[in-house]
Amino acid sequence: KGPEEQYMHTSLRKALFVCALGCLLLTAGPLAMALPPAQGNNLLVNPSFEGKFRQTSLSSHVSEGWNPWYVHGGAGSNYFEPEWKVIQRPENDGSADIRSRLQHGDRSLMWFNTYALHRAGVWQRVKVPRNSQVTFTIWVQILSARKTHRVQDQMVSGPEDVGNYQIKAGIDPAGWDPGGAQVLEPPGNTIWGPAVWDANTIGPGGTNRWVQTQVTTRARGDYVTVWVMGWNKWAYRYEAGFVDHAA
Q1: Whose CB has fewer CB within 10 Å in the chain, the N or C terminal residue?
Q2: Which range among 28-37, 54-63, 124-133, 181-190 shows the weakest confidence by mean pLDDT?
Q3: What is the pTM of this model?
Q4: Looking at the DSSP assignment, which residues form a beta bridge with residue 113?
Q5: How many CB atoms lie within 10 A of CB 42?
Q6: In the prediction, which pLDDT does 197 show?
Q7: Per-residue pLDDT averaged across 186-196, rounded?
Q8: Is it the case that residue 215 has pLDDT exceeding 50?
């Protein structure tokens, strides 16, 4: 690996990045933006990524209950497979950068690559009351930068680099189950919430912050599949999406 790629791998092992995935709720009407409900009301498996994790490829690990996906059209494709990493709070509570990548609890999940484009994320199929209205909320954070930028000991997107990376939360109301496949795209009937851009996850002082987004639709049966998708327009040195605290 080159020095930039090696640096990214080392940084990930030290838990440099995070995002947050919202919660799945049953509602009788539109849900106002708010903190996710208590675990007992949460229909997702391992919604805060605090549980066990498993190896999904030679260099990737994903939290139990969640499944990685990415777009790759084979030879000549513009998109490449990212790596997924579980972020763990160190015993000493870690650096300011590590703490900024944890929205809730001691673990979160991220995917990333260096100098490459990706359209990728995670999904989970969820059993719901038949034909119920469901809302999926998610906390997210983004790192997208041509070079290293630090603010108050946090690695952040460069101010001149914003507008490159976005993340969306979606619900497939038909509840498609992709099985064990990883190279795929969300189905065309997926309902998507508004995009969260890299600039949205930079606080007023330039430090990292979490942004919660959501999407609501009605199930077409007993299952829905929730999706998180992140993608970048230009292949910068650092390209990462983070998720935590889903419902």
Answers
A1: N
A2: 28-37
A3: 0.85
A4: 239
A5: 18
A6: 98
A7: 98
A8: yes
Q: Which residues pair with 108 in a beta bridge?
A: 87
Q: pLDDT tens-digit profile of 128-140?
A: 999 999 999 999 9
Residue 91, both tokens: 């015993």
| Length, in residues, of the chain | 247
How many angstroms separate the CA atoms of 183 and 138, rounded? 23
- 3-class SS string, the chain: CCHHHHHHHHHHHCCCCCECCCCEEECCCCCCCCCCCCHHHCCCCCCCCCCCEEECCCCCEEECCCEEEECCCCCCCCECCCEEEEEECCCCCCCHHHHHCCCCCCEEEEEEECCCECEEEEEEEEECCCCCEEEEEEEEEEEEECCCCEECCEECCCCCCCCCEEEEEEEECCCCCCCCCCECCCCCCCEECCCEEHHHHECCCCCECCEEEEEEEECCCCEEEEEEEEEECCCCCEEEEEEECCC
Q: How far apart are CA 171 and CA 68, in angstroms?
A: 16
Residue entry with tokens 């606080």? 203
pLDDT tens per residue across span 28-49: 333 233 343 334 589 999 999 9
Q: How far apart are CA 155 and CA 123, in angstroms?
A: 27
Q: Cα angle at 205 between 199 and 208, to 5 degrees?
A: 55
- In angstroms, the CA 240 to CA 12 distance is 10
> Letter for the amino acid at 230?
G
Q: Over range 81-104, report the average pLDDT.
A: 95
Residue 63 tokens read as 């939290």
The token duo for 77 is 């494709």
C-alpha 246/C-alpha 191 separation (Å) is 17
